[in-house]
Every structure is written in C-alpha cells, then in structure tokens.
C-alpha cells in the first residue's frame, strides 16, 4: 500500500546562497528577486508523492548567519534530511557548505539523507565553482548533488523528489 511519511528536513548554508528562495519555489512556486533575509529560522511544509509513498516534508529554513550558529542543532537534530546549499557564483559559500557537512556528519543523525545544492545555476556568466569540483566533493562525502536555480525552478522539485525517494521506508 501507499505509505505516508513525515520527514523533517533542514536547509543549511551561507547567507545569501538561496535557501529561502529554494523553499519558496518548492512550496509556493514563486521567486522573489529581493528575498528578505531569514531571522532565526522559518517553517513550512510541502508534500511529495513518490512511487510507493507520500512524503510530507516539514521544512526548517535556517538563517545561515554565524551569530545564529548555536541554534542550528535545534533544527538538524532529529532531521531525516538536509539540503546544504551553496551559491555557484561564490567559492566561499562552498567552503561554508563543507563545514556544515562536517558538522552534520559528526553531530547529525547517522542515516540522514544529505543533498548538496549548487544554487543560482542560472548565473552561468558569474560561475566560480566548477560543477565537477562540487560533484567530486559530494561523491566523496556520501551526499547527492544537484545544481539548482530557485529563479528558473531548475532541479528544485527534483532535489526534494530525490530526497523523498532516498528516505528510509518505515
Ligand atoms: P538565503 O540567505 O540562503 O535564504 O538566500 P535567499 O533565498 O534570501 O536569496 C539571497 C538572494 O539571492 C536573493 O536576492 C534571491 O533573490 C537571490 N537568489 C536566490 N536563489 C537564486 C537563484 O537561483 N538565482 C538567482 N539569480 N538569484 C537567486
Ligand atoms: Mg533565508
């Protein structure tokens, strides 16, 4: 039969990488050019149907500012999945993403499904991070990887769908 799964999902990554924009695109199908920065964290939910299950994502979109770092464990603790977001036009944001991956690997739950999102893939002329570099990093660290664009909607539903497929079936 068709299973219903509730899955807590957290978005982590540098300020400005596009976490809130990915959530807005996924949940409401919208994009805002001047997205306000997140204070603390924001909650929303969205349901995805995969072949054998209906997955309701309970999404925690975190702020990303260093001053809120101590709050992050509240959001990733008990999370079934995480999307770690960087901006393909900003090399420092990939380095920040790697720090989050390390933190999740040491503090997060051990069977968490982790995705690395190289966002702003529409900004091809400003690209600073090669696809191959991020892909290789993701592979070495057991994450799956997609380049996304919250602006054009490229791979946004897809990354959530791929996570839904990988969640353990209870
Ligand atoms: P957050 O701090 O990680 O939540 O990032 P935001 O979602 O607030 O986005 C930061 C800025 O980048 C905003 O001005 C967004 O409009 C812009 N942005 C987010 N995603 C994309 C994208 O895929 N493409 C482009 N061109 N801009 C984006
Ligand atoms: Mg935000």
TrEMBL record:
Q: What is its main location?
A: membrane
The Gene Ontology terms for molecular function here are:
GTP binding; GTPase activity
Q: Indicate whether Transmembrane helix appears among the record's keywords.
A: no
Per UniProt, which keywords does this protein have? Answer: GTP-binding, Lipoprotein, Membrane, Nucleotide-binding, Prenylation, Protein transport, Transport
- State the annotated membrane topology for this chain: Lipid-anchor
One GO biological process term? protein transport
Compartmental location: Endomembrane system
One GO cellular component term noted in the UniProt record for this chain: endomembrane system
Q: What does this protein do?
A: Protein transport. Probably involved in vesicular traffic.
Tell me the protein family, please: Belongs to the small GTPase superfamily. Rab family.
According to UniProt, the name of this protein is OLC1v1025246C1
Q: Which organism is it from?
A: Oldenlandia corymbosa var. corymbosa
Q: What is the lineage of its organism?
A: Eukaryota, Viridiplantae, Streptophyta, Embryophyta, Tracheophyta
- Which part of the entire sequence is included in the shown chain? 5 to 174 of 201
